[in-house]
C-alpha cells in the first residue's frame, strides 16, 4: 500500500519539552516523581513514563512530598500554591502558549472584562486557565451562550488547540448578542493550525485517512473531525493494535497524521505496518 504522512504531525515543541523535562527529572530526582494529571494526552507515552517511575495523580492531595511535574496543559495557580505550601519541588512543564492564555485571562479580569474562554470546559488546559480568574464563562458552541451576561465588557481568549473555524463561528454568535465592549485576543496555537491544514490537504488526496492519538487529546480529535469532513473514510486510532485491517481492503493510497501528543514511535510503527500490509498479500 502507498502511504503518505502529513507534512506537519506528531509532537509539537511544548509536548516534546514536557516529555524531555519528565525524563530528565526521573533521572535526577532522589524521591518520588509525580505528574499532576497525565503529562500529555497519550496513553502509550504515559505508560512508558510510568514504567520509568512517573506517578500520575489527579489532585494535589495525593502528593505529600517529592517532585511534582506540572504537565503541558498547565495547572491552576491555587494548585501550584498548594504544592509549594507542602514543600513539594515543582518542575513546570506548562506549554508557553498555555502560560500566555493564563496571563491574558488574569489581565483581562483586572481590566474589568468578563473573561470568556472559547473551548471545552472539562479540558485540563481550560480548567487551568479558569483558575487564573474569579469569574470565567466557557463557551464551546452556541448552546453555551446563555452563560454570558446580558451586557457589559467581554474579554475573549481561546483554548489553544481549537480550530480557527470553530473560533470564528463562536465569535460570530457572540457578536449577535448584547455587549458594551468586545475584546478578542487570538490565543490559537499556530502549530496546531498548521497540523490541521496539513491534515486536510492530505485527506483529500488519499483513499483512506488515519488520525493517530489519544482519545482524550483535544487537538487530535479536532484533526479527526476536520479529516472526516473532507474524507468519510477517516479513522481515529490510538495505535496499530486498534486497526481493523478490513478497512484497508480495496484501498490503494493511505494518509496518516497524528496529534501533537502522539510520539514518533507510534507513528513510525503504524506507517511501517501499513506499508507492509499490501506486501504481505493481505
Amino acid at each position: 500500500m502507498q502511504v503518505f504522512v502529513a507534512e506537519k504531525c506528531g509532537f509539537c515543541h511544548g509536548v516534546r519539552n514536557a516529555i524531555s523535562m519528565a525524563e530528565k527529572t526521573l533521572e535526577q530526582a532522589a524521591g518520588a516523581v509525580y505528574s499532576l494529571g497525565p503529562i500529555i494526552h497519550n496513553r502509550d507515552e504515559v505508560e512508558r513514563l510510568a514504567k520509568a517511575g512517573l506517578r500520575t495523580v489527579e489532585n494535589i492531595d495525593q502528593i505529600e512530598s517529592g517532585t511534582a511535574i506540572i504537565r503541558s496543559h498547565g495547572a491552576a495557580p491555587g494548585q501550584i500554591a498548594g504544592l509549594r505550601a507542602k514543600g513539594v519541588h515543582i518542575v513546570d512543564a506548562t506549554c508557553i502558549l498555555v502560560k500566555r492564555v493564563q496571563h491574558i485571562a488574569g489581565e483581562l479580569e483586572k481590566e474589568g472584562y468578563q473573561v470568556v474562554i472559547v473551548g471545552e470546559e472539562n479540558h485540563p488546559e481550560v480548567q487551568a486557565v479558569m483558575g487564573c480568574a474569579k469569574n470565567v464563562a466557557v463557551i464551546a458552541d452556541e448552546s453555551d451562550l446563555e452563560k454570558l451576561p446580558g451586557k457589559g465588557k467581554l474579554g475573549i481568549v481561546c483554548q489553544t488547540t481549537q480550530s480557527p473555524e470553530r473560533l470564528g463561528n463562536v465569535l460570530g454568535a457572540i457578536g449577535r448578542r448584547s455587549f458594551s465592549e468586545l475584546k478578542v485576543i487570538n490565543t490559537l496555537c499556530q502549530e496546531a493550525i498548521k497540523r490541521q491544514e496539513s491534515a486536510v490537504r492530505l485527506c483529500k488526496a488519499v483513499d483512506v485517512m488515519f488520525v493517530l492519538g489519544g482519545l482524550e487529546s483535544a487537538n487530535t480529535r479536532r484533526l479527526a473531525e476536520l479529516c472526516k469532513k473532507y474524507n468519510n473514510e477517516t479513522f481515529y486510532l490510538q495505535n496499530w493494535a486498534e486497526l481493523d485491517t478490513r478497512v484497508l481492503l480495496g484501498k490503494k493510497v493511505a494518509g496518516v497524521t497524528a496529534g501533537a501528543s502522539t510520539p514518533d514511535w507510534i507513528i513510525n510503527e503504524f506507517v511501517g505496518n501499513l506499508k507492509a500490509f499490501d506486501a504481505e498479500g493481505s
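The mean pLDDT is 93. The radius of gyration is 21 Å.
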